[in-house]
Design brief:
Low-confidence stretches of chain A: none
Number of helices of chain A: 3
Strand content of chain B: under 5%
Structural class of chain B: mainly alpha
Number of domains of chain A: 1
Distance between the termini of chain A: 14 Å
Helix content of chain B: over 70%
CATH architecture of chain A: 2-Layer Sandwich
Distance between the termini of chain B: 84 Å
CATH superfamily of chain A: Histidine kinase-like ATPase, C-terminal domain
Strand content of chain A: 35-45%
Largest interface: A-B, 20 and 22 residues
Oligomer: heterodimer
Order of helices and strands of chain A: EHHEEHEE
CATH class of chain A: Alpha Beta
Mean pLDDT of chain B: 84
CATH topology of chain A: Heat Shock Protein 90
Largest sheet of chain A: 5 strands, antiparallel
Largest sheet of chain B: none
Strand order of the largest sheet of chain A: 1-2-3-5-4
Chain lengths: 123, 242
Amino acid sequence: MMETLMNLQFPLRRELMTTVRLVTGGVCSLAGLDVDESEDCKVCVTESLLLLLHAGYSSARVCFEREGRLCVSLSGEGKASSEKRPSEEEDISVALLQALVDGLEMTREEGGVSCISFRFGSL
Amino acid sequence: MDENELFLKYKETGDLALRNQIAERYLNVAAMIAKKFVGRGVEYDDLYQVAALALVKGIDRFDVSKGLKFSTFITPTITGEIKNYFRDRSRLIHLPRRVAELRVNVKKAADEILSETGKTPTAKELAERLNVSEEDVVCALEAGSVVSLDRPADSEEEGASFYDVLPAEEDAYEKIEQRDAVQAAMKTLSGAERQLVSYRFGQELSQVETAKRMNVSQMYVSRLERKILQKLRESLKKSMAE
């Protein structure tokens, strides 16, 4: 059964990224991930949030759940002006996510990525 | 010259000047990825160097005809190299890469078998699933655990630490004392246990070989060995206290 560890909703601003990374590290520790996995998870959460930011969302929701493994899902909420990012950077973010996580799923809308989910750890 | 032409020309001629030209175009990608891994105890410059080397290696492996963008192709390559670098550098005990990888695979296979059958798999089942020997599985399971010297040496988590019971310098007198203590400790073991000690520590046989000779499974040998060592530790601790 899926157990929700934490649900966060926050304005999508660059100055909040460090806070979200810290929270992610704490949740990873609760979920029993090792240091390398939790560092990778932090990178993936940051990359996902950057993808949402560049798709023009003004806030984001991050949900950490556990069902054997740690499942992270992120979604953008509320449209704001898009901070356009070169498409190459976006491609690199996506390729980086693909390289680091299992079961990456992405939903795209007109402005860009709107939902991202992935799984971590081998619990 | 555009990107594709450059790659095709390099493939055709093997001209290093062309490879360097490609590498220079994509150094920003190496820098960008390296930055994402900063803060894990390795300097950015080192990460950048690892990423740049991975980039150069990747240029040789890239195949334009597959229709993939080079930046998309090279990102997992660079990420993989950086992760290998962390793995090799960050462990207190540097496990051989083969053992470290086997540890990951054993863990995965154990999860798979557990979810399929609802039972914790044996070393034999894991070995069959991964197509490796039982000894490799046991070795991978036991490798890499780090124990503090300050940790109590007995199972009751109290009393002397490993640091206290580890021998310092040897001398002949101490050797005689140790032999006496070991002989006394050995008397506390059963026949089968003594036989195992003789195979494993006298004849220095592997766990698999010992299991064959004793006509038991390797897992049994591994468990019995741990039990014996614990017994011997307790007994030696007692004799030291006396």
